[in-house]
Write a structure and sequence with these properties.
Elements lengths: L10 H7 L25 H9 L13 H14 L3 E5 L2 H10 L7 E5 L4 H13 L3 E5 L4 H7 L4 E7 L11 H11 L2 E5 L4 H4 L9 E5 L13 E5 L1 H15 L5 H33 L4 E5 L9 H7 L6 E6 L2 H11 L4 E2 L9 E3 L11 H6 L6 E5 L5 H13 L2
Parallel strand pairs: 2-3, 2-4, 4-5, 5-6, 10-11
Antiparallel strand pairs: 1-7, 6-7, 8-9, 9-12, 11-12
Length: 396
């Protein structure tokens, strides 16, 4: 197959063919290179490769052919110059943040973050002399006011976990540029199909590939994408020496997931929109938050920066925590799990799972109530999902 038109391929084509590297056997499916190391033709060749004078692989902790294919395919989809794949989404986020700062630097982050991300910003970084400030990501003036002379990094996720707040990425990127800081965006809830942070001005984008990219509950993975200059200057040595590398088998699994990503995300988004509309009219639902609805608080920003809604819906069940627990326990088709982006519909209670380590006040500040649940829509028929939800709501 000729690759002469690869850069002009549409996303669906890139996700099937992008970055493919075939061995001498001409396999149709990408090969899994389950190897720790690589052989050299001579001592001189080994020296040249370690010096970077000769192309090739050295050690699978640094780079691996199967992992390299996954990275290249993600670059083609995201429009990034370079990428590094990691063992998990949190490995990607931790590496992207920590490789960018040192003791004495300052980080500004949106307060609405996944619980583990808040821990990295609020607890881990200060241990190493890195200051941090949390702001309301929706408030542009809060970003501006938080900037200090030593501010080096901005960090946000949009839509947020779990209440699906949306941050104006382009506007925050301009503030970061003016401050001489780099903006890192966790884009996992939008997926690279619904939102392109780099096109909006962000400098680094990270994903938990465990979610939609795998999309079938099989393996962990993560990826960091940016321009080659930043990766070479900041991430390369950090990645090489700390070892958050992705396994070749998981990289192969993620490559298979990318092939069906557009089909899955399209159907999951359609299901989410139908479920959100149904919930909005149900008497036992107090609040529905979905980026595809006109009543979303940031609907105008969503129309500007997202190509679609989301595969997730956040809502509140009557009866507080007891009502939410009773509803979840009564579900039959929808599974109870803290994962998301799966082919199977999954639901979780953020206050007692993903965000349990936050204080009650912090959860309230983020809009996470005792009655709040987060539903990740799968590929089941929407009518069956709605029927399951209705039966569970009748049970409370």
């Amino acid at each position: 197959m000729t690759k002469s038109n690869e850069q002009n391929w549409k996303p669906a084509t890139q996700l099937v063919h992008g970055g493919t590297m075939r061995s001498q056997f001409g396999e149709t499916s990408e090969a899994i290179y389950l190897t720790q190391g690589f052989l050299y033709d001579s001592s001189e060749a080994a020296e040249a490769r370690f010096k970077g004078e000769e192309p090739g692989f050295i050690y699978s902790r640094y780079a691996n052919p199967t992992v390299d294919m996954f990275e290249k395919r993600m670059c083609a989809l995201e429009g990034a110059e370079d990428a590094r794949a990691t063992a998990s989404g949190m490995a990607a986020i931790s590496a992207a943040l920590l490789c960018s700062v040192k003791a004495g630097d300052h980080v500004v982050a949106a307060r609405a973050l996944f619980g583990s991300c808040r821990w990295v910003v609020e607890t881990l970084m200060p241990k190493y002399g890195i200051e941090s400030t949390l702001v309301d990501g929706r408030d542009l003036k809060a970003w501006e006011d938080a900037v200090r002379p030593n501010t080096k990094l901005f960090f946000l996720e949009s839509p947020t976990n779990p209440t699906l707040e949306v941050v104006d990425i382009a506007a925050v990127a301009k503030i970061a540029d003016a401050a001489g800081a780099r903006l890192v965006v966790d884009n996992v809830f939008a997926t690279p199909l619904q939102q392109k942070p780099l096109e909006l001005g962000a400098h680094v984008v990270v994903y938990s590939a465990t979610k939609h990219i795998d999309g079938q509950g099989r393996c962990l993975g993560g990826v960091i994408l940016s321009d080659k200059e930043w990766i070479d200057a900041n991430l390369h040595d950090y990645f090489r020496h700390t070892g958050p590398s992705l396994s070749p088998f998981n990289a192969w699994t993620l490559l298979k997931g990318l092939e069906t990503l557009p089909i899955r995300v399209r159907q999951q988004t359609e299901n989410a929109a139908r479920v959100a509309d149904h919930l909005a009219s149900h008497p036992k639902i107090e609040r529905v938050i979905y980026p595809g609805r006109k009543d979303h608080p940031q609907a105008e920003i969503i129309a500007r920066q997202m190509k679609g809604g989301s595969t997730l819906v956040c809502f509140d069940v009557t009866g507080g925590k007891a009502g939410a627990f009773g509803f979840q326990n009564a579900l039959g088709l929808v599974g109870l799990s803290n994962n998301l982006g799966d082919a199977k519909s999954l639901i979780t209670h953020p206050g007692t799972t993903t965000h349990k380590n936050l204080t009650e006040e912090a959860r309230a500040d983020l809009g996470i109530r005792p009655s709040t649940v987060r539903l990740s829509l799968g590929l089941e028929d929407a009518d069956d999902i709605i029927a399951d939800i209705d039966r569970a709501l009748e049970a409370i």
